[in-house]
Amino acid sequence: MRITVLTGAGISAESGLATFRASDGLWEQHRIEDVATPEAFARDPDLVLRFYDMRRAAAAAAHPNAAHRALVRLAAHHDLTLVTQNVDDLHERAGSPHVIHMHGALNRACCAGCGHRWTAPAVMSATDPCSACSAPATRPDIVWFGETPQHIEAIWAALEVADLFVAIGTSGNVYPAAGFAQHAGRNGARCLELNLDASSNARDFDQRILGPATSIVPAWVDSLIG
Ligand code: OAD
């Protein structure tokens, strides 16, 4: 079976990484417009870089959980395309080899001038020179609000051929990811939501299983692969 999975912050919550919209979420400690837009970076690069340095350190200290590991088992039995909105690398560290990071990755830096990417240092400076073109234009390889998600054409294509689309731990508030279920459904996929609480786009799913990801994702994978 061809399965396209979209994960969000909820799959990493039990690894200790705060979700965005929980009451203790990161956006409440740092106003979104102060940290996650190109305008914020232009206005106050040090604030934005410290915010991502903090998140990079938190992700490095976290460990993959049973839900990340269950998706590795799923890929051994089905034709899985794994898309994540998460910028941590917990899917990779669980053993998923091909992860589509549509919102970028904390562990990468990129050059705002030429687009070259490299491994992010623990502490990033906007004036670090690019290793390809030497421009002092370093930024996190993160998709900020107002920017285009990465790999979006490949993702639409995977949604169009999927037999099953599964969204895990995402609130359905941010487009285009919030439109994936509708797109997959219109192209013939069955749509399943695995989440702690029903998402904002709950009507786009045929079925829903609610609970913590470390319980419901392994149970769902086991039910599918036997
Ligand atoms: P949110 O913080 O918006 O939503 C987290 C979802 O995870 C909610 O639906 C929760 O109910 C669910 N959840 C929380 N704990 C869970 C658990 N233990 N098990 C299962 N589900 C749990 O995070 P996202 O939907 O990922 O974008 O946010 C989407 C995007 O908005 C992010 O990628 C980021 C943000 O702004 C950018 O930075 C561009």
How would you describe this structure in keywords?
globular, Rossmann fold, binds 2'-O-acetyl adenosine-5-diphosphoribose, three-stranded antiparallel sheet, 226 residues, 2 domains, SIR2/SIRT2 'Small Domain', alpha/beta, six-stranded parallel sheet
Notes on the structure:
The chain has two domains: 136 residues, Rossmann fold, CATH 3.40.50.1220; 82 residues, SIR2/SIRT2 'Small Domain' (2-Layer Sandwich), CATH 3.30.1600.10. 36% of the residues lie in helices and 20% in strands. It contains ten helices and nine strands. The strands form two sheets. A six-stranded parallel β-sheet has the order 3-2-1-7-8-9, with helices on both faces. Helix 6 runs parallel beside helix 10 and helix 8 packs across helix 9. The longest helix is centred in the first third of the chain and has 17 residues. The protein is globular, with a radius of gyration of 18 Å. The site of 2'-O-acetyl adenosine-5-diphosphoribose has 25 residues, from helix 1.
CATH topology name of the largest domain, in short, is Rossmann fold
- In spatial order, strands of the major sheet run 3-2-1-7-8-9
Helix content: 25-40%
Encode the helix/strand succession as letters: EHHHHHHEHEEEEHEHEEH
Total separate domains = 2
Q: Name the average pLDDT.
A: 94
What radius of gyration results from the CA coordinates? 18 Å
Structural class, judged by helices and strands? alpha/beta
Low-confidence stretches: none
Write out the CATH superfamily name of the largest domain. TPP-binding domain
Bound molecules: 2'-O-acetyl adenosine-5-diphosphoribose
Major beta sheet summary: 6 strands, parallel
- β-strand percent reads 15-25%
- How many separate helices? 10
CATH class of the largest domain: Alpha Beta
State the end-to-end CA separation.
Answer: 14 Å
